[in-house]
Amino acid sequence: QAELEEHGGGLVQAGGSLKLSCAASGRLFERKAVGWWRQAPGKEREFVAAVDYTGEAQEYGDSVKGRFAISRDNAKNTVYLQMNDLKSEDTAVYYCAVHMSGSYHLTAPRLYSHWGQGTQVTVSS
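The chain above was modelled as a monomer; its predicted structure follows.
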């Protein structure tokens, strides 16, 4: 069983919504921040959003602020990414990742220790 499993990707029209989920095995999420990253073909990996270990603090990339919302349910070992008003430029593979800390430096990819396999999100215009 994979340590992190992402679900919820798919094909959606511009302006539509999708909700991604990331489930962790064992205690992988315990007292750790969790983030979502994405990578489009030919582009660098991009920070999307992160939530601290309590779920009370969130951070977002500039391109998704006001449209995406990250949340977590620690009882279910699951983190979510609600994506609204999707645009064609949101098309990418989305990855869930576990941070080494509970709440600091959430936009630094080198500080994420575990990565999921990714789920494809395609937004048609």
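The two ends are 36 Å apart (CA to CA).
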